[in-house]
Design goal:
The protein is α+β, with helices and mostly antiparallel strands. Helix content is 36%, strand content 26%. It has helices at residues 19-33, 37-58, 98-102, 111-119, and strands at 6-13, 66-73, 77-83, 122-127, 133-140. A hairpin with a 5-residue loop joins β4 and β5 (133-140). It is globular and about 40 Å long.
Length: 143
């Protein structure tokens, strides 16, 4: 019989600061799973960025919207989904280059997705047909 996965859901308002609730929930789950502290810090940063993106770009900081953070715990990995209720970004964000940003050639945005992609083992972003967007991140215990 396959091992049961534990699922944790955290609903947070689209108000800056509440991303910390999702970060700490994920950190607690990762600690129970046996993650090294440095990986927990990577996870917290990635979740913070994903939640802030969902609040800003997806939900447009509308007070009546929420961000749903789902943690799926299994023996080898932690899967995190961050779902918003909005339309999201329509333009592609270039990989940030600090020199170009300093010289005003490139927009100063884009570091959030860059960080997420470099802090977790898997990441994908999808538009949900019925509305909203989801960022799915996976971080493995033994990396």
């Amino acid at each position: 019989m396959p091992e049961k996965q534990n699922i944790i859901e955290v609903h947070i308002p689209s108000i800056m600061g509440y991303e910390k609730v999702a970060m700490e929930s994920a950190a607690a789950a990762a600690k129970i799973m046996g993650f090294h502290q440095s990986r927990i810090e990577d996870l917290k940063t990635a979740i913070s960025e994903a939640c802030c993106n969902a609040m800003e770009h997806g939900n447009r900081f509308k007070k009546d919207t929420t961000v749903l953070v789902t943690l799926k715990v299994d023996k080898e990995k932690l899967e995190v989904k961050v779902k918003d209720e909005g339309k999201g970004l329509h333009k592609k964000i270039d990989i940030p280059e600090i020199e170009k940003q300093i010289n005003g050639i490139q927009d100063a945005r884009g570091w959030g997705m860059f960080l997420i992609k470099n802090l977790v083992d898997e990441v994908e972003m999808k538009k949900i047909p019925k509305g909203g967007n989801v960022t799915r991140m996976v971080i493995h215990v033994d990396r």
